[in-house]
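Posting here for the record, re: adenosine-5'-diphosphate.
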Amino acid sequence: MAEHLEPILPGSYLGILGGGQLGRMFTQAAQAMGYKVCVLDPGADSPAGSIAEKFIQADYTDSAALKEMASLCASVSTEFENVPAQALDELESLGVFVAPRSSCVSLAQNRVAEKKFLATWKAETNIGPAPYSVIEHDADIAHIPADLFPGILKTARMGYDGKGQITVYAAADLPAAWAELGKVPCVLEKRMDLDFEVSALVVRGYDDAVVAYPVSQNIHRDGILHTSTVPAPSLKPAQEKKIIDAAKALIRKIDYVGVLCVEFFVLKNGDIVANEIAPRPHNSGHYTMDACVSSQFEQQVRSMARLPLGDTRQLAPVSMLNLLGDLWFEGSEDQAKEPAWNKVLAHPDVKLHLYGKSAPRMGRKMGHINCLGEVLNEARQHCAAVATELGIEP
Ligand code: ADP
Ligand code: MG
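Prediction output follows.
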C-alpha cells in the first residue's frame, strides 16, 4: 500500500498551473479557506496571477520556475488543460503532490487516447464514445468505414470551444478536410443525432471517496458554452443515474484525484454517448459556485490538499449564462460599450461573476451569471430576462 500522506492545512501555499479564469476562481476558493496560492502562467497579466499571493511568470516547462513553485507548494493542480505533462512530472519528481497526475491530464489532452479510454471501459460504464476512426497517415483515409459519414473531423490535440473541427459529409471530402487541419493526427467521429448535451462533474478525494454533482444540461453557441441548467430539464432520472455511474466509474479507473468533468450527448433515440473529459473544474460546473453546498473550486482545493470532500448537494435550481467579450462591443470591436450590470444586478437572485480580464474580445469568456430560482422555471426566466437586458439573443 502506498504511504499515506497528511493533509495540507490552511495557511499553506497551494499551486496552480495556468492563470485563466478557472485558476482565478480556484484562487478565490483557496483564499476563502485560508490558503495562499502560487500561480504559474506564461502571460504577464492573468486573471489568477493578479490576485494570487505569489505569481510566477514563466513557461510551463521552465525548470527554474517549477523549482521555485515546488519550494513553496506541497501540492499543485492545473487549470489549463494543455499544460505539458513534463511540467507535472517535474513537479512530482520534486516531491510535490500533483493532483490530478500527469497521466490523467495527458489522457484528456489527446482525443485519440481519450476516445480509446472511453471505448475501453464501455462494458463497465455502459456508455461509450461515438463511433470513430483515427487518422494519422494518408493511408488511414482509405480505411475509414463508410458509416462514419457525415462525420466530424477533430484534431487530436489543442481543440477547444469547437476549434479544430470540420464537418465532413462524404468520404471524398476527407482528404481536403484533413489537409485543411494541417494533416495533424485527428479523429473522425460519426456525427450523432443529438437531442441535447449534458455534463457530469465528479470529484475523487485522496481517500478514494467519489462524489458527483447533479448533471447539467448545456447549450452551446458557435461551439462555446452558452447556458448550463441544473437540474437538467430534458434528462430522465434513469439517464442521470446512468451518466453519474459512468463518470464515477471513469474517475476511479484512472486513479484520478481532483475534479473531473465528463461531457455526454443524449441522442434522439435516447442513447447516451460519452464525448470528452476535462481534467479540471469546467465551465458547465460554474453553477456550483452559488447553487451547491460546495463549489467545484472548493472541491479542487479539498482534493489537492488531501482533505475530505465537501457536500455536492444542490440548494437551488439554477441556470448559468456565460458572458462573452461580445457584450463589450456595439456590433464590431471598434465600438466599445460597458454592459448594463446595474440592470442585471437589479435581479436580487442572480449572481454576477466577472474574471477581471483586461481586454474584452469577441468570443472571449469574460464572466458568467448564475441565475437562481425557487423552482427551475423561475431560474430559467431570470436567465432569459438577464440575457435580454444584456442584448444576448434568446
Ligand atoms: P471541444 O473540445 O471544442 O469542446 P467537442 O468534441 O466537445 O469539442 O465538440 C464541440 C461540440 O460539437 C459539441 O459540444 C457538440 O455540440 C458538437 N459535436 C461534437 N462531436 C459531435 C458528434 N460526434 N456528433 C454531433 N455533434 C458533435
Ligand atoms: Mg466539448
